[in-house]
C-alpha cells in the first residue's frame, strides 16, 4: 500500500482523527507515522482542523476515584519510570503517577506540532499536593507543556479551565537543579499560552506554576503557592 499517495493518506488520516479507525488498524497506522511523512502531515492537518471543535465542549472533571483508576492503569500499561526527583521539595510531588496517566495526551499533542526538525520535549505538570489553595483549583491544576526541539518555544495548555480568583494570576517557572527559579512569565488559566525564550531547557530540571498577584511575582521568585510541577525527562 502506497502511504505516500495523498488521497490514501488523507482518507486514513481523516478516519484516524475522527476516531472511526479502531483496533489493530489504528495501532498499525500509529506505527507507520514515524516513517511516512505524507501520512504524518495528513494526520496533523486533520488534528488541527478538528481541534477547535473541542473548545466548544464544556469540560467535565472526572471523580477522584475515576481519575486515580485511570492513572494506575495507564501508568502500568505504559511502563513509564517514576519522574526524577530534584529541585528541593517541589520535585517530590505526590502526583507522580499523574505523569503516566497523562502520557497518552502528551503523546497525542506531538501530532499537533510540525514534523520537521528535532522532536519536541513534552512535560506533564501535575498538582502539587499540599498547596494552600482552594481544593477545586488544586484538583484542576493539570497542564501539558511542549517545548520545541530547538528549545525556543514552549506551548502550555491546561487540561481544564482553572478557577483562579480575581486579582490573581498564574506564573510559569523554570526550575534548575541548583539555584533560584527563573520566571517565564504569566500564563492563562483557561486557554493555551505560548512562551518564547532562548534555551528554555538549558539548566532546567522541571517546570512549575504558582499563583501570584495579577501583575506577576513582585520579587522575581514564587511568592504564592506552587500548584503544579512537572519534571523534564532525560
Mean pLDDT: 78
How many structural domains does the protein architecture include? 2
Count of DSSP strands: 8
Radius of gyration, in Å, reads 19 Å
Order of helices and strands: HHHHHHEHEEEEEEE
Instruction: State the oligomer.
Output: single chain
- The number of distinct helices, counting runs of at least 4 residues, comes to 7
Largest sheet: 8 strands, antiparallel
Strand content: 15-25%
| Largest sheet, spatial ordering of strands | 5-4-7-8-1-2-3-6
Description:
With 234 residues, the protein is an alpha+beta fold. It has 2 domains: 49 residues, no CATH class; 168 residues, no CATH class. It has 7 helices and 8 strands, in the order ααααααβαβββββββ. An 8-stranded antiparallel β-sheet has the order 5-4-7-8-1-2-3-6. A hairpin with a 5-residue loop joins β2 and β3. α1 packs parallel to α3. It is globular, with a radius of gyration of 19 Å.
Can you lay out the helices and strands and say which pair or pack?
Elements: H1 6-18, H2 23-32, H3 37-54, H4 64-78, H5 96-101, H6 103-109, E1 121-127, H7 135-139, E2 143-147, E3 153-158, E4 168-175, E5 182-187, E6 193-196, E7 206-213, E8 226-231
Antiparallel strand pairs: 1-2, 1-8, 2-3, 3-6, 4-5, 4-7, 7-8
Helix pairs in contact: 1-3
Amino acid at each position: 500500500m502506497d502511504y505516500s499517495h495523498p488521497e490514501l493518506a488523507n482518507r486514513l488520516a481523516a478516519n484516524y482523527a475522527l476516531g472511526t479507525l479502531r483496533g489493530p488498524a489504528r495501532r498499525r497506522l500509529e506505527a507507520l507515522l514515524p516513517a511516512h511523512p505524507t501520512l504524518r502531515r495528513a494526520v496533523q492537518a486533520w488534528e488541527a482542523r478538528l481541534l477547535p471543535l473541542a473548545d466548544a465542549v464544556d469540560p467535565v472533571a472526572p471523580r477522584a476515584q475515576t481519575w486515580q483508576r485511570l492513572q494506575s492503569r495507564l501508568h502500568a500499561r505504559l511502563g513509564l519510570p517514576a519522574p526524577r526527583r530534584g529541585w528541593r521539595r517541589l520535585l517530590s510531588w505526590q502526583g507522580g503517577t499523574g505523569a503516566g496517566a497523562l502520557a497518552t495526551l502528551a503523546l497525542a499533542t506531538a501530532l499537533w506540532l510540525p514534523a520537521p526538525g528535532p522532536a519536541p520535549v513534552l512535560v506533564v505538570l501535575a498538582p502539587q499536593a499540599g498547596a494552600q489553595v482552594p481544593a477545586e483549583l488544586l484538583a484542576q491544576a493539570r497542564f501539558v507543556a511542549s517545548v520545541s526541539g530547538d528549545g525556543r518555544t514552549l506551548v502550555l495548555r491546561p487540561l481544564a479551565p482553572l478557577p483562579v480568583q480575581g486579582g490573581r494570576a498564574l506564573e510559569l517557572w523554570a526550575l534548575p537543579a541548583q539555584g533560584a527559579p527563573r520566571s517565564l512569565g504569566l500564563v492563562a488559566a483557561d486557554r493555551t499560552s505560548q512562551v518564547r525564550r532562548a534555551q528554555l531547557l538549558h539548566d532546567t530540571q522541571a517546570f512549575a506554576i504558582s499563583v501570584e498577584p495579577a501583575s506577576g511575582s513582585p520579587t522575581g521568585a514564587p511568592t504564592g503557592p506552587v500548584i503544579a510541577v512537572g519534571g523534564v525527562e532525560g
